[in-house]
Amino acid sequence: MSSGTLFDKVWDLHRVSQLSGESTQLFIGLHLIHEVTSPQAFSALHERDLKVRCPNRTVATVDHIVPTTNQNRPFLDPLAEEMLTTLERNCSKHNIPLHGIGSGKQGIVHVIAPELGLTQPGMTIACGDSHTSTHGAFGTIAFGIGTSQVRDVLASQTLAMSKLKVRRIWIDGYLNHGVYAKDLILHVIRMLGVKAGVGYAYEFAGPAIQRLSMEERMTICNMSIEGGARCGYINPDDITFKYLNSCPYAPKGDAWDRALEWWEKLPSEKDAVFDDEVIFDANEIAPTLTWGITPGQGISIDERLPNPNTLAPSDRQITLDAYSYMDLKAGMHMKGLPIDVCFIGSCTNGRLSDLKAAAEIVKGNHVAKGIKAFVVPGSEKVAKSAKAIGIDKVFQEAGFEWREPGCSMCLAMNPDRLNGNQISASSSNRNFKGRQGSASGRTLLMSPAMVAAAAIKGEITDVRTILNPHANH
Amino acid sequence: MKKINLFPEGSISKVIGKAIVLKGDDIDTDRIIPARFLKCIDFESLGSQVFADDRKELNGNHVFDKKIHEEASILSVNSNFGCGSSREHAPQALMRWGIRAIIGESFAEIFYSNCLAIGIPCVTTTKQQVEDIQGIITKNSKEFWELDLRNKKLLGSKNSWNVEIEKSTQEMLLNGNWDATSELMSNDLEIQKITSSLPYINNFSN
Ligand code: SF4
Predict the structure, then answer these.
(1) How far is residue A463's CA from residue A300's CA, in Å, rounded to a whole number?
(2) How many CB atoms lie within 10 A of CB A284?
(3) Cα separation, A122 vs B131, whole angstroms
(4) Which one of B91, B107, B198 has the shortest CB-CB distance to A29?
(5) Which listed CATH number (3.30.499.10, 3.20.20.30, 3.40.630.30, 3.40.50.2020) goes with A287-467?
(6) Are residues B146 and B50 in the same domain?
(7) B155 belongs to a structural domain
(8) pTM of the model
(9) Residues A168, A192: contact at Cβ < 8 Å?
């Protein structure tokens, strides 16, 4: 059993009681809600005539269903409009702050809470969305919950939960030029598999992790869930504190000094005990992308697609399924594969640094003929900051569409979706069958820079050949 | 559409019914209920939409479309079932179709707790046993099965298997407090204590 880890410390601080069975009643420091997974929870509350226990520890935004072209109300899609109205009504009834469209604070829930400084080290955070793991980048225990649990948190600000084990994922070395946080996490998931994290919290640590910016750390923790781990975290350090210092909802003045003192005590102790530990070397990672129908079906740009017979027996069937669905074959290179759509955005890679990295590739180039390429900033703040430095223009001049913030084609609950069996290069996090809105649509996950490279070449391209055209790849 | 049994309520110690097999590892919640069906403010219509895209692709030949499985209430799956999105719409859709218990090699965590929260036990057993069980179900879809949660057994007409269930899950189902809201709310004093002890709630002044 783990001890002395950040996970243990934060868990103990939030333990309310031992419930029947072996589960713990855990206090939730911040509850984030959005339009898709909250309406039924509010209905359940109303049916039982219950109140929201801590409206001031609850924050709402709208992200999944918002259109990214015309955001005028009412939305053209009546169902989307109904979902937003319902959220607005529930928030106003229960005095829950809602960062709506045009507020300057709206965006994907996992983008706005960190940038507003709502997400702080040492908290427990829950949200009816599996990518809540993102917030672990600040040294929080943050995890996704279902709608019945949303109801429980609304009613009691607590949850029934069994304690997770802790696996430390230690990353040595340096990321090479052209290799990004996204490549790192796709590599880890590929190596450990999509089930390895079940029952675990992932602690990401080591020199390569410590060098990452907060936005890169969010990309890593975001995809813990794709590795099967309900939560992932990184110990807070000076990079964390510096980021928070400029955030509107972070503590100010004397409270900041006291906060800092408390935050500094949170990281895992030197002699902490982990339930498991694995080590990777960042230097060995090349640009990585998925080729299949689970996030674990990844490959580096230099490799050929695996021969199913050389894989573990348990991986064979899903590999064959993936080849047939994706229309790919063993032995092929992903490099050179023609694509149809390019999507830059999502809670994994829709932040300013992601857009900057992609813009660097795009600048002075043009989207290849026949390719639909678009950028969806993760939040209104990201959009504003990007515009302030002219990135929107860089993309538009290159033939990308520049959209309004939201989840967009990450899950295609709005009009942005693939058609037929189109294949997309996407900076999002899931490549499941049908994920991007067409039952036969195909998704290749990769870094925003790789998506940008694919857009201008019209095919899967090693981004390093654009960043550094004279090197030999 | 077939008749839906009453939804789970109170203490759950047994699930008895016909069974259905859905083969495949890593079946994610986007497949169980595609995102476009999440555009709703209640769960009511989800039952007929479960596995919508897979069913459409198979043109009536999906197991969930076959008349012989119409009354099935026990679902047998393989490994990492329910991975991906945290949408409770997935277990809700299965429940509203008629599923009351799931047996598999392993389950994704959020899916597992979402099932528990609506009174659907997810029990596990070894890969080999899952395959044996699936073989028997496939041969005779009319057979009745009994999942005995107290004794952690799955009983068929001729065989019985040991199954695993997390102890806390087992107790919550047996006690009928899998719907956690009231128990959680009853500890109000302790909740208040924690609230006043957490630095970030008290302007870091304690
Ligand atoms: S961007 Fe995608 S993964 Fe992130 S919250 Fe939105 S739908 Fe979920």
Answers:
(1) 12
(2) 12
(3) 44
(4) B198
(5) 3.30.499.10
(6) yes
(7) yes
(8) 0.96
(9) no
- Copy the structure tokens of residue A134: 């993102």
Is CATH 3.30.499.10 correct for A6-276? yes
Q: Residue B117: its chain A contacts at CB < 8 A?
A: 146, 148-149, 152
Let me know whether B124 and B194 are in one domain: no
Test A255 with B205 for CB contact under 8 angstroms.
yes
C-alpha span between B20 and B145 (Å, rounded): 11
SS3 content of chain B, % helix, strand, coil (to 5): 40, 15, 40
* CATH number assigned to the domain comprising residue B66: 3.20.19.10
Residues spanned by the domain of B195: 177-206
B116, B196: one domain: no
pLDDT in tens, chain A (473 residues): 999 999 999 999 999 999 877 789 999 999 999 999 999 999 999 999 999 999 999 999 999 999 999 999 999 999 999 999 999 999 999 999 999 999 999 999 999 999 999 999 999 999 999 999 999 999 999 999 999 999 999 999 999 999 999 999 999 999 999 999 999 999 999 999 999 999 999 999 999 999 999 999 999 999 999 999 999 999 999 999 999 999 999 999 999 999 999 999 999 999 999 999 999 999 999 999 999 999 999 999 999 999 999 999 989 999 999 999 999 999 999 999 999 999 999 999 999 999 999 999 999 999 999 999 999 999 999 999 999 999 999 999 999 999 999 999 999 999 999 999 999 999 999 999 999 999 999 999 999 999 999 999 999 999 999 998 877 65
**A194 vs B: CB within 8 A:** yes
